[in-house]
Design goal:
hydro-lyase activity, 2-enoyl-CoA Hydratase, Chain A, domain 1, Enoyl-CoA_hydra_C, fatty acid metabolism, globular, Enoyl-CoA hydratase domain-containing protein 3, mitochondrial, single chain, 11 helices, alpha/beta
Amino acid sequence: MADIAPFAPAGSGLVLKTVENGVLRLMLNNPPANALSIALMQALRAELEAAGADPDIRVVVLAAAGKLYSAGHDLKELQGHRGDADGGRAFFSRTMELCADLMQTIVNLPKPVIAEVDGLATAAGCQLVASCDLAVCSDTSHFCTPGVNIGLFCSTPMVALTRNVPRKQAMEMLLTGDTIDASTAREIGLVNRVCPRQYLTQTVQKYAELIVAKSPLTVRIGKEAFYRQAEMSLSDAYDYTAGVMVENMLARDADEGMGAFIDKRAPHWTGE
C-alpha cells in the first residue's frame, strides 16, 4: 500500500489536498467545526470539478481536519444576513442552491467519491456523507440531522438521507434530531464500514486502490447508470441498463477485460 502524501493547501486553504497513485484526497479545513460556509462549498466544488476533468484522478476521498467531520451550514454566517433588506432571503437561497449544486456535483462526478469520516457529521455534514458513493467511518464517529432542535428542519439533508437509508430510520433522525453512533450508521446503510480510527485512512485507501485497479471507463459508466436507474420504474430501468450494457460491451476495455479473463491474465486498461 502506498504511503499517503502530505496535504497541501488548495486555493483558499479551506480545502487541503494530495494526489497519490490516482487518488485525490480532499480534506475540509475550516476549524473548529468544518462548517460548510459559502467559501468552503465553493472551494470544494471547484476541486471536485477539476478532478472530474483530470484523467489522472480515478478516485476522490473526502476527509476532514479536526474533531468534527462537518457541523453543516455555517449558522453564524446565515444569521449574519438576517439584517439584510430582504431579511436574508437572497443569501439563504444562495447558500441552499450552492449546497444542492455541491451535492449533485459529487453524485454526477464521473469518479467515485469516498467519505472518510472521523468525528461528528451533522445536518449538511451528514448530507455530505450520504451524497458520497461510499463512506467509511471510525468507530468513534457520530451522525445526526438536528435541525428540528433549532426550528429548522433538515429538508435538504433529507434528500440525500432518504436516498441512502430506509424511510423509517431517516424520519427518526429527522424528527428527533438524535445522534446515532457509528455502528447504527452502518446498520442502516449510511456508511459502508466502521473501523478503529487508527486504521481509518488505511481502510479508505484500500477501497480507493481496489477501484483504481478497475477500468476507468467501466467505473464511469457504472456510476452514472447506478444513479440514473435508481430514479426509474423497474421496466424503464431494465430497458435503460440493457442499452448501457450493450454500449459498454462494445468498448475496448470490455473486450480487453473479457479476453484477459478467458486467457487468465491481468487486463491492461486504456479507458476506452
